[in-house]
Amino acid sequence: MTNYEQARRMVIDKVAPAGVERVLLLEAAGRVLAEDYVAPKDMPRWDNSAMDGFAVRSADCAPGTVLKVTDYIPAGVSSDDVVTPGCAARIMTGAPIPPGADAVVPIEETENTAETVKLLQQVKKHDHIRFQGEDVRGGEAIIPRGTVIGAPQVSLMASFSTVLVPVYRKVRVAILSTGDELVEVGTEPKESQIVNSNTLALATAIKLCGAEPVILGIARDDRESHRALLSEGLKADVLVTSAGVSAGDRDLVREVLAELGVVEQFWKPGIKPGGPTAFGMKGNVPVFSLPGNPVSTMITFEEFARPAILRMMGHEKVFRRTVSGILKEGARKKAGKVNFLRVHVAIEGGRFVASTSGDQNTGILKTMLRCNALAILPAEATEFAVGAEVDLHLLDPTLEMEV
Ligand code: AMP
Ligand code: MG
To answer: How far is the CA of 370 from the centre of ligand 2 (A)?
Structure first.
């Protein structure tokens, strides 16, 4: 394994689901079920009609037979009156099958008046009856723990009148930007000042993971400021910092984190962009120290922090879908580091084809806009011919729809 692969694995191995809470079904969308959902009852709860029609005794029912209509059972009503030979009960979809009946004849297959019904077709025993428990049996673990809750899961739980569901709790992810050059969004930067775009970019990426961003603001390039805000950040479930993580004399993040008891697990995981990324743990709190360059910040969040946050929220699938694809343009790089190439992937002739999304210089932010995948160029390789096969981390799960 390369440094990069080991680093990614290490992050995942260090974190675990943060805890469980019970939420209203309406709040459960996209959350991960923390316990098997066991059906409290049979579904359907009773034998019922699948059609608007007539509940009959199938033995009575040769085509052409005329039965006497002796009962009327609309939806929401049940009847204890036995359907006797030669008789039928008018019944609506969903209503319980009355005693004595063993089939339902759809209204379209009859000629009927208020008092009589003439059967036009053959009727078989059990026709158009939905039987108790045929969908779900009471006691069955019908939705396994670990399932991401969507409309079908909510539909089933709601149909049992369940109000609260146990899900892994949302994690709070603290975000700290660092640097004397930064001013907040909405401020007009003076020359040499930079607008703090990373905080909001990270907050957005965190929200898209389903987690809750906690914005700490900007730490200035001095120890006191770093100490105060980093210790605040360590109260969250996850801490993500931007900038100040290289080897410059103003780069204080790693040093101050160490003072605060964060045990560094790796630094410089052999990647480009994102070279100086660091990762540490304090107790259960993972700390991602990402570089400040906005392209590097986003890519390293994507590759390291996102999978950890998803895992802490109970997700089992935490990595982006990785596919093999081909490069539309050739590429070259230095040996030694895994390179992330920002690419635009489309499906052409049944293959994933990656074209560069533009200038790969990390100073070029707009290249991220058209980027729907990262091509992973292995550490030791240097030359990639047109058509070379590479791994692609698909950032856009709807890619297939583009065909
Ligand atoms: P550093 O990692 O401190 O060397 O910063 C690298 C580059 O990223 C510099 O050009 C910074 O101005 C820029 N940068 C640092 N922090 C931010 C931020 N919060 N938002 C936008 N750009 C940033
Ligand atoms: Mg700096």
So the answer is: 27
Q: Tell me what the mean pLDDT of segment 47-75 comes to.
A: 96
Binning pLDDT at 50, 70 and 90, where does residue 397 land?
confident
Q: Of all atoms in ligand 1, which is nearest to the CA of residue 293?
A: 8
Q: Quick count: other Cβ atoms within 10 Å of Cβ 92?
A: 17
Rounded CA separation 159/41 (Å): 10
Residue 63's nearest CA partner among 128, 127, 129, 118 is 118
- Counted residue by residue, the chain has a size of 403
Model pLDDT for residues 2-12, shown as the tens digit of each residue = 699 999 999 99
Query: Distance from the CA of 242 to the center of ligand 2, in angstroms?
Result: 9
CB-defined site of ligand 1, < 6 Å: 177, 179, 181-182, 194, 196-198, 242-244, 246, 291-294
For the chain, percent of residues with pLDDT exceeding 90: 94
Cα of 260 from ligand 2 centre, angstroms: 20
Closest C-alpha to ligand 1, atom 16: 292
67 and 88 Cβ atoms separated by less than 8 Å:
yes
